[in-house]
Amino acid sequence: MGSNFSVAEENYIKAVYHLQKPGAIVTTNELAAELQTKAASVTDMLKKLKQKKVLNYEPYRGFNLTTEGRKAALGIVRKHRLWEYFLVEKLQFGWDEVHEVAEELEHITSKKLIDKLDAFLDFPRFDPHGDPIPDVNGKMQVQHDISLNDLPVNTPAEVSSVKDQSSELLDLLKHKNISIGSRLQVTRKFGFDQSIELRIKDIAAPVNISLQLAQVLYVKPL
Amino acid sequence: MGSNFSVAEENYIKAVYHLQKPGAIVTTNELAAELQTKAASVTDMLKKLKQKKVLNYEPYRGFNLTTEGRKAALGIVRKHRLWEYFLVEKLQFGWDEVHEVAEELEHITSKKLIDKLDAFLDFPRFDPHGDPIPDVNGKMQVQHDISLNDLPVNTPAEVSSVKDQSSELLDLLKHKNISIGSRLQVTRKFGFDQSIELRIKDIAAPVNISLQLAQVLYVKPL
DNA sequence: AAATAAATTTAGACAAATCTAAAAAATAAT
DNA sequence: ATTATTTTTTAGATTTGTCTAAATTTATTT
Ligand SMILES: [Mn+2]
Ligand SMILES: [Mn+2]
Ligand SMILES: [Mn+2]
Ligand SMILES: [Mn+2]
After folding, report:
1. How far is B25 from chain A (nearest CA, A)?
2. Residues B108, A104: C-beta atoms closer than 8 Å
3. Which residue of A97, A103, B24, B172 shows the fewest CB atoms closer than 10 Å?
4. If you measure CA to CA, which chain B residue comes closest to A122?
5. What is the pLDDT of residue A220?
6. pLDDT tens digit string along A23-41?
7. Which residue of B has its CA nearest to A100?
8. Is the pLDDT of residue B2 over 70?
9. Which chain B residues in 40-59 sit with Cβ < 7 A of strand D?
């Protein structure tokens, strides 16, 4: 009954969770790429995880998580994101630095630890990148955010998440005075380079956003 | 140059550090007992750690840490005790619950994490059991505390550490209103069972301490 | 429908960390 | 000084997770 997975198994479970889209199936090569390992290694692990009833898997047919597997994945994601929140909010890390550390912290086994950490942090619902944090039952807020690219002109919206965690992106956003929670509105869209001009609430000067930037900036229309 | 040890190696290094007394040597069986493993496994690891220049080791002759090894050990002890402090002071764990969790957390590799945690905790110098926390350079306060058994009658002293981390001990200490930092003074010693009567500062009623309790309660004469 | 290419699995090997049982060395006892 | 006991090391296996190279299956072209 008690889930008892190794670090390697947990990393596989989480990776499948992140790759899998509703209805669809994950492939061996996709998973190998995600985990920076070889397809043969993935196949070995798939057999083990199938045995442990974490995966639905038929050779050559692809795979996805069972209900058990998704539960396990949500537990790992919960830990990962709570630790990221802790690192940024309490230890003053930048959000470009926390992923690697959380990649290790997410494997600490104590359930009591993570629930007490959750309480200490006052039950945050989103991590520093705007991704939702599963609660103690695995429930999390559904994100209906869209790429800034898809936000219509003159629609007030709030920056809700970033799909890239590089320090280069953080650097650019800082320079443009944009962070998660910023209110903004697209004022113009330029067909030539698909760049965007927008106005940020309480800031006079208009801001220019490249296609590349708009692609990774997600917003929630208000 | 950067130390790069596996979890197993780190556990061995720390165990040798804890077993080793100045000048003396540690034996294979002692280490096997400490780590709850077999002597054969210890020998295997000793050879590896000697190769990595962590240990001075000659077959059949015992071993102890090199300067490099002690430096590594202090780094692990620092992490272990800082995490214990965090768990008790920030997450409201009891000091009987933290050791196991810290046993995992001490292996998280980020140096930045531990230094930021140190700052967040305001650079504590002692962990919840009264053991000194090495600073960023491995320096720590020397403890000149003695067993309550060895405290002379009528000598004011302060409880400084406990040599046992069981919940049974914590339970007993709570019941007797004793915690780390308590001021006390031995009023009588009884030869029959080597029990001790003492008075705690600001508490009227005298308290009786068994031999077993006095052995694990350490105090610093004021 | 073959032939070719791509994806996946299998076979066999390896490193890390552990174990049991046997051999060897060091200590202690006669 | 032998003999017996204890401690330590070696030999050989095992588990976990990984890899390369070869075989197999599936998908895509011709
Ligand atoms: Mn991880
Ligand atoms: Mn995140
Ligand atoms: Mn440990
Ligand atoms: Mn401690």
Report:
1. 34
2. yes
3. B24
4. B91
5. 96
6. 889 999 999 999 999 999 9
7. B110
8. no
9. 40, 42-44, 46-47, 57, 59
- Mean pLDDT score across all residues of chain B: 96
Report DSSP letters for A116-177, one per residue: HHHHHTT--SB-TTSPBPP-TTS--PPP--EEGGGPPTT--EEEEEES---HHHHHHHHHTT
Predicted confidence (pLDDT) at residue B1 exceeds the cutoff of 80? no
B 22-81 → A contacts, CB under 8 A: none
| Minimum-distance CB partner of A104 among B90, B109, B120 | B109
Q: State the amino acid at position B127 in one-letter form.
A: D
Confidence tier at A139 by pLDDT (50, 70, 90): very high
Spell out the domains of chain B, with CATH numbers in brackets: 1-142 (1.10.10.10), 146-221 (2.30.30.90)
Read off the pLDDT of each residue in B167-171 and give the average, rounded to a whole number: 96
In the numeric block, which tokens belong to residue B159? 């409880």
CA distance B160 to B222: 11
Q: For residues B159 and B146, what is the distance between their CA atoms, to the nearest angstrom?
A: 10
